[in-house]
Amino acid sequence: MKLVKHLANLGYGSRKEVAQMFRAGRITDARGEVLYADDQPAHADIRVDAEPLDPPPGLLLMLHKPVGYTCSRKDQGRLVYDLLPPRFRLRDPLLSTVGRLDRDTSGLLLLTDDGQLLHRITSPKSELAKVYVATLAQDLADDVAAQFASGTLLLESEHTPLLPAELEALAPRRARLTLHEGRYHQVRRMFAAVGNHVEALHRERIGGLDLGDLAPGQWRVLGEDERARLFQAAD
Ligand code: URA
Question: Are residues 198 and 133 in the same domain?
Fold first, then answer.
C-alpha cells in the first residue's frame, strides 16, 4: 500500500493533508531521510515529525472505562473515544468497542479494528468469561447463587434461559459474577430478576485478562502475549 494511503488510514489526515505533510518533509525514515508518497518502507521504519507511527491495523487495546462515558462514536456527552488520541477515531478500518459497557459501568473495555478478533471474543461459542463486581441495593438472598447457576433463569421479555453463571458473595451487598455470554444490560437485569438492584458495576476481567494497574481513563495497546492470555482461562 502506498505510504500516503497508509498514513491517511491511520488517521494522520485526509490524503490531501498527508500529501502536504510529505511536501513539508515531515515524513521520514528512522534515520531522518525524507520519504515520498510512493515509498513503501516497513511500518516500523516510518516517522512522522520524528515520532514512530501509531500501531498498524490489527490493533487491540484495553481501556479502563470510567463511569460516565458512553461506548458510542456519536452519542451526546462523554464518549470512550474521547479518552483515546483523536487520530484513533479516524482510522480505517474502524476501531470499535468489543461489546459495550453501560455508561454507569466502569472497568475493562477492549477495542479493536480486527473484525475477526472482535467476533471471536464476542461469539457465544467462545464462552469467554466476563467477570463483574456488583454493589447491590439489598442484601444477597441465600438462593441467588443457585438461581444464577441453574441455567434456567429467564430475563424479562426473553425466551432463552441464561447460561449458568457463577456468583461469589464478597459482602452482604457486594458480589462477583462470572458470565459466559453477553446480553443487553445482563448483570443489572439478572439482579432485577431476583428482586435486587445494582447500584454500581465494574468489569474486572475478560477471559484471562485483567486491568492490572491501569487507572480509570487510561488505556494501552495489547501485545501478542496478552492476546493469548485473553483466550486462556483465568488462574
Ligand atoms: N451487564 C450490565 O448490566 N451492564 C454492563 O455494562 C455490562 C454487563
Answer: yes
What is the tens place of the pLDDT at every residue in 189-212?
Answer: 999 999 999 999 999 999 999 999
Ligand 1 atom with the smallest distance to the CA of 190 is 3
pTM exceeding 0.85: yes
CATH of the domain at 199: 3.30.70.1560
Q: Per residue in 95-113, pLDDT tens?
A: 999 999 999 999 999 999 9
DSSP 147-202: HHHSS----TT--SPPPP-EEEEEETTEEEEEESS--TTHHHHHHHHTT--EEEEE
45 DSSP assignment? G
Number of domains in the chain: 3
Distance 126 CA to ligand 1 centre (A): 19
For residue 49, indicate whether it is catalytic.
no
Q: Could you tell which of 64, 72, 80, 101 is best to mutate to test the pocket of ligand 1, judged by most ligand atoms within 8 Å of the CB?
A: 101
* Average pLDDT across the chain, whole number: 95
CATH classification of the domain holding 16: 3.10.290.10
